[in-house]
Amino acid sequence: MRWVTATVVLLAALVGVGVAQVKVEKVNYHGWKNTVKISNGLIEVYVTTDVGPRIIDIRPVGGNNIFYVRKDEVGKSGEKEFKLRGGWRPWIAPERYDTTWFPDNVPITYQRLKDGTLRFYGPKEPVSGIQKIVDVKLMPNEPCVRVTMRIRNVSRRPVTYAAWSLPVMKGGGKAIAPLDVGNVAAFAEVRRLILWSYANPTDPRFTFFNKLVIVDHAKVPAREKVIGTAKVAPTVINRRHNDEAKIGVDSKQGWVAYYHPIDRTLFVKRFFVDPKGNYPDGGCTIEIYSCQEFIEVECLSPFFTLKPGNEYAFPMEFWVFTDVPDLGTTEHEIATNLRQYLNKTRAVK
Questions:
Q1: Are 87 and 31 a contacting pair, CB within 8 Å?
Q2: What is d(CA 120, CA 149) in angstroms, rounded to the nearest whole number?
Q3: Is the bond leading into 53 cis (omega within 30 degrees of zero)?
Q4: What Å distances lie between residue 329 and 217, 258, 333, 334, CA to CA?
Q5: pTM for the structure as a whole
């Protein structure tokens, strides 16, 4: 296979006869001069190579980025500490400062595979013992990009982690997660709704229906004070503020969504779920973090153990639907309106 570095301009490629063109080119994204732009006439995807791997932007053609990007961190690189920046990033769980918060601030390499997939290689991480590799393939004729997180063991010891997918969404919308309902007559049939210690279940941003959980970013309070601190490393103090909250569910349905009413854009993430898997954070397959600045619609893989040289693949698809009317306020309205878009997607295996 031919290696491609971040300094080479990729030519537009025809994906097939009678289908849309998928164009791949190098662009300057707000100071990141070697960003890879992938487009198919329906949506555009921007992947950074000056830092990363990151999908920093995904948008309908002619529309706005559905992801959030910090203005004071975009276009920069080389920092010693982790930077949120925004966009979508691959992480590993359980969350620990020394392994999860690895700074992705250096240039990366990528290659183009025979099927048109672009494979992005992050740096080797000495503490966690892993390397993050991200496959990105834009589907022709669909507003969909296939993303596969790969966690490779580059150490000399077995490692155990879960893959963690974190899209940072622009504020003002509603995150929607499914809440499964099992056999209500069974003695031990449970479903998990998990709240982090800084999440108040009476917070107005949360709406808990029977089959859906809604997190409304418009109802997040202004940031006014610190509500807690904790030492997460010898020289690092984590500060939790009053506007922050995080919840999780153990849904096996393999999707989470985000609707932005001003842009009338619906983002749907489909991902692989192992019904028998052992998941982080008490069994979470989906986690939603929200604060005044942004909101995240996260998903996770089950825990896996890798021998040296082996890797784990966590596939998902990002769908972007435009001109989507308001989904409504009742559970029936939201579920009914959302279903017509979920039906256009597919389960990920």
A1: no
A2: 10
A3: yes
A4: 14, 14, 6, 6
A5: 0.94
Placement of tokens 């997660």 in the chain: 177
Residue 47 near residue 55, CB atoms below 8 Å? yes
Strands (E), 170-283: 174-178, 193-195, 206-208, 212-216, 226-233, 236-241, 245-249, 255-260, 265-271
Spans of the chain, pLDDT less than 50: 1-18
The C-alpha atoms of residue 171 and residue 290 are separated, in whole angstroms, by 9
DSSP state of 186: S
Contact of 118 with 150, CB cutoff 8 Å: no
| pLDDT confidence of residue 7 | 37
Distance of alpha carbon 58 from alpha carbon 319, whole angstroms: 10
Q: What are phi and psi of 281, to 5 degrees?
A: 55, 45
Helix (H) and strand (E) counts in the chain: 2, 24
Q: Locate 228 and state its tokens.
A: 């807690």
Q: What is the pLDDT of residues 233-281, one digit of tens each?
A: 999 999 999 999 999 999 999 999 999 999 999 999 999 999 999 999 9
Residue partners of 106: CB distance under 8 A and separation at least 6: 51, 77, 78, 123
DSSP 8-state symbol, 219: G
Q: Within 10 A of 264 (CB to CB), how many other CB atoms are there? A: 15
Give CA separation, 206 vs 95, 235, 277, 288, 292, in Å. 24, 34, 27, 11, 14
- Retrieve residue 336's tokens: 């009914």
* Nearest Cα to Cα of residue 86 among 71, 104, 68, 102: 68
Q: What is the largest CA-CA distance in the chain?
A: 61
How many angstroms separate the CA atoms of 158 and 151, rounded? 13
Q: How far is Cα 13 from Cα 138, in angstroms, rounded to an integer?
A: 12
For residue 40 the two structure tokens come to: 């198919």
- Residue 19 has what pLDDT? 55
| CA angle, residues 326, 192, 252, in degrees to nearest 5 | 65
Which H/E stretch holds residue 201? none
